[in-house]
Amino acid sequence: MTRAQFSAETSGGGAFVRQPNRFTGRVTPHSTSPAGGGPDDQGRWPLEAGRYRLIWCRACPWAHRARIVRGLLGLDEVISLGTVDPIRDERGWRFTLDPDGFDPALGIGFLSEAYLATDPDYTGRVTVPALVDTLTGRVVTNDYPQLTLDLSTEWRRLHAPDAPDLYPVALRPELDALMAEIHADVNNGVYRCGFATSQQAYDEAYTALFDRLDVLSRRLAGRRYLMGDAITEADVRFFTTLVRFDVAYHGHFKCNRQKLTEMPVLWAYARDLFQTPGFGETVDFDQIKRHYYATHREINPTGVVPAGPDTSGWRTPHGRA
């Protein structure tokens, strides 16, 4: 069996099994802690504007979804933003994009410092997004699926007046089921292809990925967005994988039955979202490519970053309005 990119997250059969999220605290108006206090006995942190900092990487799809939701809901001035370098070494995510290499709000050079300040015995992989408390330097949560849902629900009183409802109550049963399928086969599915160390594990992930893309393409052939006429959390989660598909997953992760640009419905849908305020301006194709091709040395030992593909097509008319 070939060497795994993340050996601790690879099964005996060569399948990639993503590690669980270590920190699962939640910011909520229902916390019984006072302003400035820590989590209550149920792990609930008090809702306070300006207190928490979202750490993200422009290259990471899981962090990207939090960045998009934060912007769509008008929380840019409520939750500050820290950005790590797209190149992650053995020490993890670094704040080398900031002056002197330190996050200006947290005063740390590596995100791992916040993880260890929260759990000194933590030995897992340090991940983004992470919501960090600026008062204590502790990680509130790195639970990326719950984080964005909480931004839509628990943070509602701090939303902009015209913020969209990305997680409508009436649609939640269908939304939850749909997002679970997208996560298993698409969001995480591309990683299951790329990080597989056996042919069987790769083949299974590849088949599930493109079968699901075909199902979603048929769904979107008759509606503008996944749930109808309005953007929801499901569209955000799908978009962050689609926007990385041709520049990273098609080649680097061997997801190569077709490029996104060769799937007409999904390509038009992705362009529609890209051209929607709050989406395209958060995309950095250069950082995406540099992260994937220069960080995963078990997959791309040379570290050479491809010059292509041409991304100018993202601004072309999509015809879905």
Salient structural properties:
single chain, 321 residues, alpha/beta, Glutaredoxin, Glutathione S-transferase Yfyf (Class Pi), Chain A, domain 2, 9 helices, globular, Thioredoxin-like_sf, Putative glutathione S-transferase, glutathione transferase activity
Could you spell the SSE succession in H and E letters? EEEHEHEEHHHHHHH
Mean pLDDT across all amino acids: 94
Q: What is the CA-based Rg, rounded?
A: 19 Å
What is the name of the CATH topology of the largest domain? Answer: Glutaredoxin
The main sheet comes to:
4 strands, mixed
Give the strand tally: 6
Q: Number of helical segments?
A: 9
Number of domains: 2
Strand order of the largest sheet: 4-3-5-6
Shape descriptor: globular
Helix vs. strand class: alpha/beta
Corresponding CATH architecture of the largest domain:
3-Layer(aba) Sandwich
- Beta percentage is 5-15%
- Enumerate the spans where pLDDT stays under 50 for 5 or more consecutive residues: none
Under CATH at level 1, the class of the largest domain stands as Alpha Beta
CATH homologous superfamily designation of the largest domain: Glutaredoxin
Ends: how far apart?
48 Å
Give the % helix: 25-40%
Give an account of the 3D structure:
The active site is at residues 60, 191. InterPro entries: Glutathione-S-Trfase_C-like, Glutathione-S-Trfase_C_sf, Glutathione_S-Trfase, Glutathione_S-Trfase_N, GST_Omega-like_C, GST_Omega/GSH, Thioredoxin-like_sf. It comes from Micromonospora matsumotoense. Residues 1-44 are annotated as: Disordered. With 321 residues, this protein is α/β, with parallel strands linked by helices. It folds into two domains: 7-158, 3-Layer(aba) Sandwich (Glutaredoxin), CATH 3.40.30; 169-315, Glutathione S-transferase Yfyf (Class Pi), Chain A, domain 2 (Up-down Bundle). It has nine helices and six strands. It has helices at 61-72, 111-118, 144-153, 172-187, 189-194, 199-220, 233-252, 264-274, 285-295, and strands at 26-28, 44-46, 52-56, 80-83, 130-133, 139-141. The strands form two sheets. The chain has a four-stranded mixed beta sheet. The chain has a two-stranded parallel ribbon with strand order 1-2. The termini are far apart.
